[in-house]
Amino acid sequence: MLVNEAIAFAEQELKRSNNLNSRLDSEILVSHLINIPRESIYSKLKENLPSNKTEELQKLVSRRVKKEPIAYILNNKEFWSTNFYVDRSVLIPRPETEVLIDLILSKINNKNNYLNILDIGTGSGCILISLLKELARAKGIGVDKSSKAIAIAKKNSISQQVDNRALFKNVNLEEIKFDKKFDLIVSNPPYLPDVSLKNLNSDIKLYEPKIALQGGVQGVDFLYKIIDLASKILKINSLLALEIGDNQFHILAKYLNKNRFKILDKYILINKQVRCLLATKL
Ligand SMILES: C[S@@+](CC[C@H](N)C(=O)[O-])C[C@H]1O[C@@H](n2cnc3c(N)ncnc32)[C@H](O)[C@@H]1O
């Protein structure tokens, strides 16, 4: 079987499963199989697929036919121009979350400051690790209730060579206790309202961890708790950066105001929903 035949086979199978990105996904899977970057696949179309790879190709395609996200099949997701190891124990990092990093960096004038960062619900560690790579003297703690997520975040911090400045702790948000105060608290918590979980795409519903998604009746349970915690352990004039769900901005803005936070910036999606906000403690 030639490489282009392998792609055609995968594309046909994926089309049959109503995959709307069947060509792209096929190219990604075949590139992964023969261990080349996807951009190089066009120069290999007429080469033979090694015969021992045919069975593996079928396995990869059948996982995607069952709606498993490409990131879990490849054990890789790019975030902030870095490759992160992911598996089904962690949420797949999303492009929207990169905006949190942007918002934060835009407000830090001196990138060489000694900052103490806390990342709540760290998952793959993508937020904390990306920040530590940008802020050469910063240190950070990433916490998560999932011990499997913590193991993955540690692994990623080692491959990204920031493990000497990152500490990952398997702890429930409700039990977090720190003597010291932080210069920055960041979180992309579970924020989906319970009712909306039923309507998620199969890729998400069947494969991504519920613990990373489920935010209570209105989806704001964790966000309230994080704001409560931040009012105790964030230094005055320091930053709180949050990713939030649809229709949550106004209710959270009120709560932040009540807790003496001022909103500095926000990121609004095309559908007019605020997805990320940055606040400072007065
Ligand atoms: C939406 S995911 C975010 C993961 C990662 N920070 C990212 O942006 O890709 C939320 C994370 O919060 C964690 N989590 C859920 N409940 C928690 C709790 N009670 N205490 C601490 N972490 C929790 C989940 O395990 C999950 O990793």
Any overview of this molecule?
Strands 5-4-3-6-7-9-8 form a seven-stranded mixed β-sheet, sandwiched between helices. A two-stranded antiparallel sheet has the order 1-2. The chain contains ten helices and nine strands. α1 (3-16) crosses α2, α1 (3-16) packs parallel to α3 and α2 (22-33) runs antiparallel to α3. The chain has 282 residues and is α/β, with parallel strands linked by helices. S-adenosylmethionine (SAM) is lined by residues 90-91, 93, 97, 121-124, 126-127, 143-146, 149, 172-173, 188-190, 211-212.
Topology:
Blueprint lengths: L2 H14 L5 H12 L20 H12 L4 H5 L2 E3 L2 E3 L10 H12 L9 E5 L5 H9 L4 E6 L2 H13 L6 E5 L11 E6 L14 H6 L13 H13 E10 L5 H10 L2 E8 L5 E8 L1
Parallel strand pairs: 3-4, 3-6, 4-5, 6-7
Antiparallel strand pairs: 1-2, 7-9, 8-9
Helix pairs in contact: 1-2, 1-3, 2-3, 5-6
The structure holds S-adenosylmethionine.
Counted beta strands: 9
**Helix and strand string, N-terminal first?**
HHHHEEHEHEHEEHHEHEE
Mean pLDDT: 96
CATH class call of the largest domain: Alpha Beta
Which structural category fits the helices and strands?
alpha/beta
The ligands bound in this entry are: S-adenosylmethionine
Integer count of domains: 2
The biggest beta sheet, please? 7 strands, mixed
Low-confidence stretches: none
Count of DSSP helices? Answer: 10
Task: Please compute the radius of gyration using only Cα atoms.
Answer: 21 Å
